[in-house]
Amino acid sequence: PWYEDPPGSGNRVYPQPGSIENTILALLPPYTDAVRGEGAPRWAVEACLQEKNMDAPSWGIPRIVGLLDRLTLQDVTTLAKLAGAVMGGESGGGSEVPPWVIEVMNRKPDPFKANEVADVIPFTNWGIAAMLSLDVARCFFCMFASEKAFPGLMKDGVSVKEYLQDAYAKMWQQVAAKVKDLPNVIGYDIMNEPITNAIVLSAVGAVIMTGALEGAEQTLVDLLGKENGELAFHLITGLGILPPIPQKPVLDDCSQKTGTEKDECERGNKEKLAEFEEEKARVLWEYGLDKLDPMAIIGFNYGFDRDYLKPFYERVGKAILEVDKDAVIFIESSLNFTLLTGSLFGVWDVSMDKLDLPRVVYAPHWYTDIYPFIGINQADRVFQVEEVRYRDYEPSLRQAEMLASYSLGNIPVAFGEFGTYFKFGGIDKSVEQNYRVSAHILDNYYEAFERMFRSRFVWCYTPDNDKRYGDLWNKEDFSIYGFDKKPRAREAWARPFPRALAGLPISMHYYSPLHYFDLSSKIVPPYGEFEVRYRSKETSAPTEIAIPEGIYPDGFYVWVSDGLCYYDYKGHVLYHYPAKDEPDAEHFVRILPPLKGQEMKGWRYFFKDEYVIRAY
Questions:
Q1: 144 and 292 in contact (C-beta within 8 Å)?
Q2: Within 10 A of 323 (CB to CB), how many other CB atoms are there?
Q3: For the chain, how big is the Rg over CA atoms in Å?
Q4: pLDDT by residue (tens digit) across 279-318?
Q5: Same domain, yes or no, for 482 and 516?
Q6: Is-above-0.85 flag for pTM?
Q7: CB–CB of 161/179 below 8 Å?
Q8: What range defines the domain where residue 431 resides?
Q9: Residue 517 sits in the same domain as residue 488
Q10: Can you point out the beta strands (E) in 83-179?
Q11: How far apart are alpha carbons 289 and 282 in whole angstroms?
């Protein structure tokens, strides 16, 4: 965003991210930057938000911009000065109208109706934007439970839920038919990060039922507790998220009146109620809430994943299995209000339980504190290497995977997403530091996963990563492949990994060049050491350890507990055939590169490219 200073001069000023002027100007057209990404197809959104006029000239403008219609130039100037004084910005003090305020007033769009825009506020963190949006919530609840949330909402003669889920299942069947025989396809993640947050809709339902804003506040307090509930109430009212549902009128007391006077009094009350109901009906239709069942929505705050997400997963999973009988189905839990209040595990627990499907994997997503702070057009976070390099993510990761053993029947876990930004402090600073902060964050992730012996999928690889737009979605920049077409933080993510074990896992570690050692003058730090331990021999097939190209440029030594090893240097896979077959036998494979100053003793093999030395 920009403004002219002085107004009309053509001299553009670009305010700092996070400033009040940057935030407000970013909301207003013309939009001079792009946020790219594929959302739901238009026909699906139209099925859920049937009142919307997506061809209106105002479509694409956030609904919150409509609040400016109520403000005069003096109002905005006063707010700007107050905000500037509080935030320590340039706008505090003085009597002159800030030039950016004039720009705001000049750019105000023409008035629009609620059904001519969407209510998503473009927070930098997309998750916050989604959790605060009535329109986003309506779409997800239509997808999972329209017959409960919006009774009577139909599309092509069936409920919107049936309409969407049928199409969704058929879509996955088409995908499965195309990819089921590809060697690099392991399974199907049915839906990415489904949002089932009913908090804002519950507040709306309370206003509808009680006819008063106080009902919304009490409902939020009941759901979130006093502190979080009051905070949520002030947030959604301050941002203009709640629709302007009229308050119930105060009726005249006609009980003491008689005759014509009483008739007129009662007629007046009826007219007040009729006007109230008419205006209420208009607002509810314009905001797409005329079919909302308030009690059902409030009930969605408890047990939604079990009652609605689970049947959805089962339906889509069974459709995929009709096409790919060997499919592995990956599932996630939903994003809901437990993000604010913590886990619901306990006396009132209604977590999703085991699915009626074979080969199900729980694939939670977990990210550490890498996202920009809450706000619009927020600057990238700034971290120092020493601030992040010693962090242990294992406790949080174990919490994230808990549902698998807690209620899903102890199914396998593979973390479906984790990763880090590569532009802390801005992309130029991050490049200058050779992405060291990002590398240490990733290394912390991997060391935790190795201790847990967990499979994982790093987010993400973007072959067309862009310096300005990152991964080409919401300016996120997670790609381990940079805009310069080179790997980023490879020393963190290029690590040996046992892609198959001949026995039961015990432990595993890899010490990358980023690993922290307490240095000693008598010990050479074993950088590059990989070790995996496992017990018993469950198969005649070998253990397979994938070794990324280039991490051992000078070759590597191998120590083994027993048995034989072979190295496929073209496929970069080390095979271990254990020999001991006793039930309690413990096997290990240890790998170490040549280390300056370190004498290697007891090794069994040395491999370098196609060459091998075996010690007898």
A1: no
A2: 15
A3: 30
A4: 999 999 999 999 999 999 999 998 999 999 999 999 999 9
A5: no
A6: yes
A7: no
A8: 363-493
A9: no
A10: 154-155, 158-159
A11: 10
